[in-house]
Every structure is written in structure tokens, then in C-alpha cells.
């Protein structure tokens, strides 16, 4: 199997991009480059290409799917543009807080303020440690004060309808591109995760925590599972990129679904623990992704999925679906997530 970056390129090029930074706005609003995300890839499945699958599907409305959220580069304006294009209101946001320093991790106010006028709850992706920091040191409890500071600020944010505030920790920890990469440091990852959960819970009992993996990596993610007492939601990120997965949308979805650590794995893992799942980041590319979107929509409807977040941006992964770049794919997405039976709320006329 070949290993690749989310943006492609050689390992050396990926390393240079990684050194450049990590793609979120700094506290002062400046931009910095996000590091690459790599994918372990499965060989294309030997299934025939079925005629007409690239066309926009016309299927009957299904049972309501999990609420739809969106990532729009931490920019409320981009989220509103997405909703206008979609024709529905998203149910929540997905927001990354600061990752460059311990001070940024402990002070998420800038990110909170960007959406102060946007009356929606958010899935808050909170970095476990900044770059050039050590999981071993964090596992000792040395930095707990920063987690407590962050918790105090995030406890004031709008909760979900069930009264909870959702926090995503250590996302894609089974890869090697974030400073909290867990392979070979599983015990330190688990201890750090538990320190963060305990710090947040000492501030409020409304916090709920997502443990998140990237699909298809070779590491056994269960070795870095913090335990049922510390995890409320089992999450996964996945993206379809034709350079590294089957170009046919049905075969591509099946490859992600059936990978050793793919969609089936995460649903089975969560079911054994009585936990809901979430697909916190996902994206497609091209104007033939309708069948892929349809199958993912069906998958979500058939499982205990708490929420999904579409990556509607071109940074790191060119997945921006709003607008007219991919009209057939866009129509399929609106049909799946804004038609009767979908989760999003209709945007009122203005």
C-alpha cells in the first residue's frame, strides 16, 4: 500500500509543510499553514463501474439523519454563505481553538468571539498539546492549568439542545501528523486525555468528550482508548481523494467503509461500548460524488450517529462544495441534507 498526504506530495514536502504551522487563525486573526494529513490506502476494489452512478441520484427521503454541522475556516461569514447555498440552517458548528502555544490552548476567547452573534452550539476541537511540546510532560499533569482555563471559557458557550457542551480532543491521534500522535506513546496519550477530561469536569458537568481517529491508519486505535469513563462519543474523520482511493464513488465509499479501521470498525467499536458515533470531518471532491454522498447519508441514517461535519473549505483538502464548482455533487448534497427527512432546518426567506 502507498502512503500519501492529504494534499499529496513527497514525505519531504509534507515535512516542510508540517514545519510551517497548523492552519487555524492565531489569536490575532492571522493565518498559518496546517500540516499534512496522511492516509493509508486500500487497493481499488475489483467491481465493475455501473452506468449512471455519477448522475445526481433521485431517492426518496429517508429517516432523519444525524444533525449536520460544517467547518468553514472558523469564519462565521463562510458558514452563512454555506447555509444560503444549502437552503437550510446547519444545526451546529465545528470550531478549532488555538494550537500554537499553551497560552492559546488556555485562552479560546478569540475563537468564541468570532461566532458570538451566531446562535448555535459548536463542537470545540481543543488541542491536547501545542507543537514542540511533549505528551510525556502533559501526561504528568504539568499543564492542567491551561485545560482548566479553557474549560472556564468554553463552559460559557451555547450548549446543544440536550444541555451538553461537546469537546473533541486529540483528533486523528492514530496518524503521525499532530503533536499528540499516539503510536508508541499510547499510555501518555491516555493519561493526557484523562487529565483534560478531569480538568474540564472540575469546571462543569455539562462537558461531553469525543475520542476521534482517522480512518485507515495502521495503528490499532484501541491501544490509545482512554476508557469508557472518559469518552462519551466515538468519532472518525475521512475524505475521498481520487488520487489515492478508487475513482468510482461507490467503490470509494465501500473502501472507506470496509477498511480495517474504517466506518464498520468505528460503528462496531462504539456499539460494544454503548456509545454514539460522530463523523467530525468528512469531504468529497469532483462532480460525480453524488452516489458517495447518498451512501454516506444512508450509513448515517442506519447507525447511532450523533452528528456529522462537512469540510466546506479548500485549505488542506479541496472539499468546498458550496457554489457552482460541482453542480451535480452540490445538488446531491442538498438532496441528502436539506430535502424533507434531512436534518438541517430550512433557511427562512429574507
UniProtKB/TrEMBL annotation:
The active site is at residues 172, 281. GO terms for biological process: substituted mannan metabolic process. SUPFAM superfamilies: (Trans)glycosidases. PROSITE patterns: GH26. Gene3D superfamilies: Glycosidases. Pfam families: Glyco_hydro_26 (PF02156). Residues 41-346 form the GH26 domain. Residues 1-31 are annotated as: Disordered. The keyword Zinc-finger does not apply. The keyword Phosphoprotein does not apply. Keywords: Glycosidase, Hydrolase. It comes from the Bacteria. One of its GO terms (molecular function) is mannan endo-1,4-beta-mannosidase activity. Belongs to the glycosyl hydrolase 26 family. PANTHER family: GH26 DOMAIN-CONTAINING PROTEIN-RELATED, MANNAN ENDO-1,4-BETA-MANNOSIDASE E-RELATED. This is Glycosidase. It comes from Teichococcus aestuarii.
